[in-house]
Amino acid sequence: MTAERLNHVDFRDQISKNKLKSFVLVFLIFIVFLIFGYVISMAFEPGLFLIIMILSVIVSIGYILLTYYKSDKIAIASSGAKPASREKYREFYNLVEGLTIASGLPMPQLFIIESNEINAFASGRNPGKAVVAVTTGALEKLDKRELEGVLAHELGHVGNYDIRFMTLVAVMVGMIAIISEIFLRSLWFSGGDSDNKGNVIFLIIGIVLAILAPIVVQIVQLSISRKREYSADATAVKFTRNPQGLIGALKKIKKDYEGIEGGKKIRVTKSMAPLYFANPFREIFSTHPDINKRISVLEAM
To answer: With the C-alpha atoms ordered 162, 164, 168, 174, is the resulting torsion angle positive or negative?
Structure first.
């Protein structure tokens, strides 16, 4: 058996491995939530802790669910995407239709983003409500096989229910952030009365957790997002049975990152960045894995 064969990565293993890691990271967020809740309950009266928990749950779930059920419309509006006509974008339609047949997914609504960058996104709370948008730059710069790889990746997000999964993560992260904010603000209204603060040690621990916990869970959230990107890459290979198209697209995106200066950029908010095929912001703490790492994993398939 050759070394090349030993280093081979099966797309099925890649999908299951990254899904497992995602669930482990979600469990980590839940553990942070429980520890933080326990510390607050020890530092304050149980009644006050219950009020904090109820408020955080109502605010977080209410806001996130509104975003979840309107995710497709919010994504389209924030990007400035326009409906793609079948007559003008025939290849776009043909590729997506072929992929839906291969994957068993329903046909999504298709949109175009006017931008010279190579990018795309998928959104929608379930496959029946999915939308897929692609930039004009992707249509112009990618060949048919590369464009198919990008579209397969986006349909991979749809098939993996990543919007639903990341909404659950956002609810948990949002709850921790809100609990931290309420806890810290409640200290100002306690008037320094030690009788209402419970154990001083737990109070100090609570303050430290209130500052650090939101940062930690946001870092974990970014890690989960990156795992879902790897899963979508592997799912794209499952749909197309060929990683070369996706590899070619990523290499061209890398060149775009290094050389693109002028031209029309994608109009995107930070909250929408995780939806995109490639991170539009090129930041250190990214929602996406490093492009070189994505290419290396795909080359091993």
So the answer is: positive
